[in-house]
Each structure stands twice: as structure tokens, then as C-alpha cells.
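Model: You mentioned two targets. I'll fold them one after the other.
Researcher: Yes, keep them separate.
Model: Target one:
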Amino acid sequence: MRIISKEQLQNLREKYPVGCRVELLRMDDIQAPAIGTKGTVIGVDDIGSIMVSWETGSSLSVVFGEDLCRRIEDDK
């Protein structure tokens, strides 16, 4: 796990505000949603993990420096 600076944390919170939509690109977890799964950001915690409510019902966070997601336009 990487240590996140205050500046990086602030940038993540600005890039991934509560309610924005994301798509999963990489997650190394046996219980991870499938790549391409979409979800809604519910917050960014103090260690930089992006907390997501995935369409599959999962709520695994995107871990800073390990996993990867991208912000998308709301397709609803």
C-alpha cells in the first residue's frame, strides 16, 4: 500500500466527488466485481481509497496505488 500525500488526497476527492460514476479497470481481489463494472462514488477515505457502491451490490473500495477505476459520464 502506498502512502498518500495531503495534496494527492485532495486531488482524489476533487476528481471523484460523492455521486460521480466510475468504471472498474483493475482490482486484485477474489471478490472484486468484473472489470468494466460501473458504480457510484460514496466517498474517498483518509488513506485515498475510493469508496464505491457497485451496480453488482458490492461495496469494495478502489485502493489507492493498487486498484484502478476511471470517472465516467452518468449513462442513466
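Model: Target two:
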Amino acid sequence: MTPDRENSLTDWLAHVERLHAKPIDLSLDRVRAVAQRLELHLACPTLVVGGTNGKGSTCAMLDSILRAAGYRVGLYTSPHLLRFNERAAIDGVAVSDEQLIEHFAAVDAVRGDTTLTYFEFTTLAILRLFQHARLDAAVLEIGLGGRLDAVNIVDADCAVLTSIDLDHMDYLGPTREHIGFEKAHIYRAGRPSICADPQPPQSVTDVAARIGADLWRFGRDFNYSGDKQQWAYGGRQVRRAGLPYPALRGANQLLNASAALAALEALAGPLPVSQQAVRQGLLTVEIPGRFQVLPGRPTTILDVAHNPHAAAVLAQNLDSMGFFPVTHAVFAALGDKDVEGVVARVGARIDTWHLAPTAGARGLAVDALAQRVLAACPQASIARYASVEDAFAGARAAAGADDRIVVFGSFVTVGGVMQVLQAERQ
């Protein structure tokens, strides 16, 4: 049965999951048709952020700085870690079940016989929610790729690409050139188009030139410099010196921050931002699961790294932490990921792997995961568990007070451990 507004958000999400035959079906035809019936339009300045890694952090910094400047901001990100509501926030607060259900019902009422994937349906609902929320600005994260991602029905006032690397190759193509082509299609003719990848594929610059985008390239149109105390941003017209380091940890956060500041420079007309707002936004930005170091002993790190590029950054961040006698990994990954590539990048830092399965159509059984870990790291010490929660319990039992536990491999992995920690606090 089709739910109504009296049903719960859980009921609605279960309904949405059943609508389309495939969980991922990259196409804009169906989602555009329903968007037209909804008369969907965002009247406020809109920023769209795509890329392989760094999207979430860049979105979080844009949102934090704009809110510090006094703007009412809608932030759309995916996937979520604990609750679906995390995907949509207004003024830094996740929207309510009731708000989501209202707009889920509106999408369902007009779609007719058109089937939508979970991501397409929920994207339309959240965009409609934002349309009715009297926003000053919207920050939207691309889900997968760019050209055929549901978020790309929005003609952004500014589009940002954070990085281009190998991930989702089954959908986006086997090389960085293929992937860059797909991601660059979030750019628009005549509009600022930020590229923070220091060495972008030629396909990105080719697409930008062909459509007439105003391409801002890292190292040419904007850059950053810094020492141990502070850093500076330099753009086409604007220089911001004496900036605090972002509250987010990690080796790439200045690159992400400079991309955010380039986007804000490009939109300085409709969205002026003071130096104090930039400082406050950087100091207070939060995003869980991105090299998140938890208080207490043993040291526990949560990181959603799930592809080789992100794993290489994770390895760099682990190296910067100093000495720990033993490092335990709690690791679970989806079956369509380059598990061997991930393990190869970070394996030298791990003493014991605590492995768990993932569920669903894209899931990976624990024995298959173990085979792939051993293929990349033949000498690895591994332990198998029935769930992420059990793997985390095993790592905690094995770790000494001075050791560290690294939880990574997917949003599902980090989310499972966050649920354990949340339950312990209650």
C-alpha cells in the first residue's frame, strides 16, 4: 500500500525503496519529468559540489561559513550515517520527519507511473522542501558522478569539483578521464566552475571549454599557503590572510577549504561574506566520520574512506598522529569497491584487521572480504565477525589503552560503530 501523511518516515522510506527495479539507474529523464510536474525551482543562490572525495567536507565548510555570515542555508548531503534526516539540514539543524513526509507525499502524488530510485525520489523531495523553506542559499552535494546524477537537474550558480579519482567505475568509466567527463557536467555555461583537483583530467578542462564555463583552477585562479599557526587564501581578486585551520582534521582540508573560499569569492555579489564569518565558519565546522578522532583511550578514529584515494589520505593522516604500539582496523566494505586498492594504501599501518560483512545487494560477505584483504596484504592478521558491531567489540577487547582503533571502509561501517557509541551514551 502507498503510505500517506499519517505513516512514519520509516514506512515512506521502505515504500520508496520498492519503487524502482534498480537501486542505481543513472538517467535524468525520469527525475526531470517529475521535477517539471512539481514546478521545482530554487530561487536562492545555489552551490553544487561534486568530486570523488572531499565533497562532504567542502559542503560542510560552505554551510558553516554562510551560516556564520547570517544566511539561512539549506544543506543536502548523502549518504547518512545514523538517520535519514541527516541528509537535509536548514540552519544547521536536520529537518524533521514531518517535514520530509510532507514533501515525500507531494512527490508521490505527481509522479504517476514514473518510477524513481531511492536517491532520485528523496532528492526531489528535499529540493522541494528547500524550495518552500525561504532559504538565502542552498548547498547541494552530488551523489554519484555528475552528468546523470539527480542533483544535476539544478542549474547551480556555482559548481565545485573537489577531486577526481577512481571510484564507481562500473557506472562512470574505467579511467580518470572517463570519470572527469562525467563529473565536469555539473558545470554550467558562463557560471563559475571551481576545480580543486591539482592535476585534473584533460576531460574536465575540455568539458568546461566546450560549454563555456568560467573555470577556476587550483594553482592558477586560486591557491593557499600556510604555516603551523595559520593559513592564507589567494583568489582572482580576493586574498584572505590569517585564517585559522578548519576544525576538520586531515591532510586535504586546506585544499577543500580553498575550494569553498573560491566558490564564495565567485558568488561575492549575491552572497557577500566577511573575514570574521570565514574565520568563525572554519573554526566551528563539523562533519562526523571524516578522520574523526574520538576522546578517550584507546584512541578511536572514524573515517568513511572507501576508495584508494581516500585510503591514501587516511594513511597520511594516521602517519601524522605519532606512535601507537598497535593499530587495529575495524573494516567492512561494499562488494563493488576496490577493496584490494584500499587495503594496499593503508595496510602497512594496520597490525590486526577485524573484518565484518555488509548487507544488501551491494554487500560483501566476511569470507569474501577476508580473501580480498589477504590478496592485497598476504601477511595480514585477520579476525572475522558476524557484524560491524561485533568487530568493534573485538577490536576494543584486543586493544590496549595506548593502542588505536581505526574504523573505516564505508558509511555503513562507521554508522554501525556510531550506533554502538550512541547507545552507550544513553
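Researcher: Noted. Anything on target two?
Model: The domain at 292-425 is CATH 3.90.190.20 (Protein-Tyrosine Phosphatase; Chain A).
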